[in-house]
Amino acid sequence: MQTLLSGFSVFDALALLLLLICWTGATRIIEHPPARRPSTSVLMADYRRAWMEQFVTRQPRIFDSQIVANLRQGTAFFASASMIAIGGGFALLGNADQLRGVAADLTEHTDPVVVFEIKLMVMLLFAANAFLKFVWSHRLFGYTSVLMAAVPEDPNDPATMPRARKAGEINITGARSYNRGLRSVYFGIAASAWLAGPWALMAAVIVTSAVILRREFASASRAVLLDPSDKLAGD
User: Fold this and answer.
1) Taking the CA atoms of the chain, what radius of gyration do you get in angstroms?
2) Per the structure, how many domains does the chain have?
């Protein structure tokens, strides 16, 4: 164990800690933002609830079923991509010597093969987590479609609105899992920079975090969602 740990420096531990803090911290901030500054994900959750309210009175409901089908296709695509990434990661574990040679061209010293294998395992853990999130999201969108099918066609039926609201909340839960899977992909890609050293990992984590948070709190799409023009027109 001591020989294994000797292949890592204090900066490696700090870089790995920064990766974990930014990964979990970004999820916390995005899903539970300050009330005065909601994230794009929180704003979209409100629109998903509004979707189910419109769904109740829309006839026919083919348009809504197509949307859910598209959501499931997206999660299925990323789940398949995550599986491919996991397979590729295990293939790299069997050829760590070649990867070590590539890394030697980028750094001043060469670490033992076992060090590269551990770094690859970190990337694999992110890919595995992404796969599980995407699969669960796919299933939740399936639950959403079942709940939507259970909504009576009569808007005045007492069960109509409660079931529509349930469909909306399950839809939001599926989207949350999908977004968590995407963040695992982002930070998994950032973790690959560790092969070039701890400083490269720190830089990749900071850039990845900045990109994710900018999209959630300072993007053009968020500005569009906050535009009150549709509400004013409705009034």
Assistant:
1) 22
2) 1
What is the Cα–Cα distance from 40 to 221, expressed in whole angstroms?
8
3-state secondary structure 149-189: HCCCCCCCCCCHHHHHHHHHHHHHHHHHHHHHHHHHHHHHH
Token pair recorded at residue 50 = 């509004």
Q: What percent of the chain has pLDDT over 90?
A: 69
Q: How far is CA 206 from CA 17, 19, 24, 110, 219, in A?
A: 12, 9, 13, 25, 18
The structure's pTM equals: 0.88
| Residue 32 belongs to some domain of the structure | no
Altogether, the residues listed in the chain come to a count of 235
Do 215 and 29 contact (CB within 8 A), yes or no?
A: no
pLDDT at 233: 42
- Look up the domain containing 186 and give its range: 10-22+40-225
Average pLDDT value for the chain: 88
pLDDT(106) > 80:
no
Q: Could you tell me if residue 27 is inside a domain?
A: no
